[in-house]
Design brief:
about 500 residues, alpha/beta, 8-stranded mixed beta sheet, 16 helices
């Protein structure tokens, strides 16, 4: 990648300053012709030694004509005004805020000599690059319109049945229940395993709170397990330590929730072996890893139950929704029952158990069916984004990318990396803040659950003497990674990171 000029915004098409510059000795005719030829809507009035005086618009030139100025006369009569300018250094967000404040679309940038180094255009700097936006196609509309045509608007319906069947087939699982969220799926999975007050449930610590909150819904006690450096997912060594502790305490967990993070499966074989050894069922939280594979098998299909999320920023989306999958028909049958308010099979409304309003609507399931048809394309696009970041920033020693072990086929739902402090004084927090100033959304890695105030009293088992998840959180960054991300947006992120690091 070519070197990036100092103080120039990444991804901005530069206006040729010399082609819109005029002096007071310039004739009115020449000024009008320059304005017409440039098509920018403004001219730059400079002194003979190149210092900026003011901007000149078409309206300014028309007023000279109304005041009697002839076309062959100079524009020397233009009044001196204080035009809105910005000086280097500046950020994209600062420049846009100034434009908004003064309702202008062009902003001259002055260097330390008060010469115009460039002119910013609103249309070039007004675009924010978000972390992960929904990526919709054409097939979704057909299924949704069918729901309207047949008046299947309420929860349940043909799209729900088909979405469950098609997703189960896609991941190679026997049964599936479409739900309102991935969180609901985890909650129901815990209900299937009779988790209740006082029970222990082990959970990956490096995850979003939705993985752990359902443990609290059931009145159970979470125990958090560290990651390992190889995959950033649950450490088999930490899980072994925790199981040994639990057995010694005479309180083995009712379940282990293994999270597959940022589109990459955990190392399932050793984790499953440990759970089998201690007779503890495993729930696989694959909310972020639909489309990922572990040794050729779909992530989310290894435990007693698996869950997926279709939140707006996920690989595929239903705007909000989730899925519980299992090869055990009784789990899915009971989950569907509980998800529809646990209504007994009676002609009147009768309830013998507490249930939930957790089922997916027929309309959202239609969106999911359309999205599922392009799952492989979405995965390929995100993997390509990750590869491009690595390629274009391969010479930046300070950046270390989320590893992908040989047994993993990751979706790279989010492109994640860490900052190595040996090669830069810029911290991950500073990088995120400075990207934000350039209207690029980046985020830290998940704050580990054992560091959350709400879980402060929960036991925690680290991978070794040092906590891997703590270190990843302290140094980690998630970069914009949408499957609909343009080359221009990616190159703008890359150029901005280069300026910062």
């Amino acid at each position: 990648m070519s070197a990036f000029p100092p103080h120039q915004l990444a991804g901005v098409i530069v206006i040729n300053v010399s082609k819109i510059s005029v002096k007071r000795s310039t004739s009115l005719r020449d000024a009008l012709e320059t304005l017409n030829r440039a098509g920018t809507g403004i001219l730059l009035l400079n002194t003979d030694d190149g210092r900026f005086e003011r901007t000149v618009t078409d309206g300014d030139l028309r007023r000279l004509i109304l005041e009697g100025c002839q076309l062959d006369e100079s524009i020397a009569l233009l009044k001196a005004i204080d035009s809105v300018v910005i000086q280097t250094p500046y950020t994209r967000r600062e420049a846009l805020a100034l434009m908004n404040k003064h309702s202008i679309n062009h902003l001259p940038v002055l260097d330390d000599r008060l010469h115009v180094s460039q002119v910013l255009e609103r249309r070039e700097i007004d675009g924010q690059i978000l972390l992960s936006t929904p990526h919709m196609g054409d097939a979704e509309r057909e299924f949704v319109e069918e729901a309207f045509r047949t008046n299947w608007i309420a929860p349940l319906g043909p799209n729900v049945d088909a979405f469950e069947r098609e997703l189960a087939e896609k991941v190679g699982c026997k049964y599936a229940a479409a739900l309102s969220s991935g969180t609901a799926a985890i909650h129901l999975a815990l209900r299937m395993l009779d988790v209740g007050p006082g029970d222990l449930v082990f959970c990956s610590t490096l995850t979003f709170a939705a993985s752990a909150n359902p443990i609290m819904y059931q009145g159970a006690q979470p125990v958090f397990i560290d990651s390992n450096a190889d995959s950033w997912n649950m450490s088999p060594a930490a899980l072994k330590h925790a199981l040994q502790w639990a057995k010694k305490e005479g309180r083995l967990p009712k379940a282990v929730i293994v999270v597959s993070l940022y589109g990459q499966s955990a190392d399932m074989d050793p984790l499953l072996a440990l759970c089998d050894e201690y007779g503890v069922p495993l729930i696989e939280d694959a909310a972020e890893s639909l489309g990922a594979k572990y040794k050729g098998r779909a992530s989310g299909t290894f435990g007693s139950m698996g869950i997926y999320s279709f939140n707006g920023n996920k690989i595929i989306t239903t705007s909000g929704g989730g899925m519980l999958v299992s090869d055990d028909a009784s789990f899915i049958e009971k989950a569907r029952f509980l998800a529809t308010q646990a209504r007994d099979p009676a002609p009147h409304y009768q309830h013998s158990q507490i249930g939930y309003n957790y089922r997916m609507s027929n309309i959202l399931a239609g969106v999911g069916r359309g999205q599922l048809q392009v799952l492989e394309e979405r995965v390929h696009a995100r993997r390509t984004v990750f590869s491009r970041y690595r390629e274009l920033l391969s010479d930046i020693a300070a950046l270390e990318w989320m590893p992908e072990p040989e047994w993993s086929y990751a979706t790279h739902w989010l492109t994640a990396c860490t900052i190595n402090p040996q090669f830069t004084k810029t911290t991950s927090e500073e990088l995120i803040q400075r990207l934000s100033a350039e209207m690029i959304e980046a985020r830290p890695l998940w704050k580990p659950m054992h560091l959350q105030p709400v879980f402060a009293s929960a036991p925690y088992f680290s991978d070794g003497e040092m906590s891997v998840s703590d270190d990843l959180f302290n140094r980690g960054v998630c970069l914009p990674s949408g499957s609909n991300m343009t080359d221009e947006s990616l190159e703008r992120v890359v150029a901005t990171i280069r300026k910062i690091l």
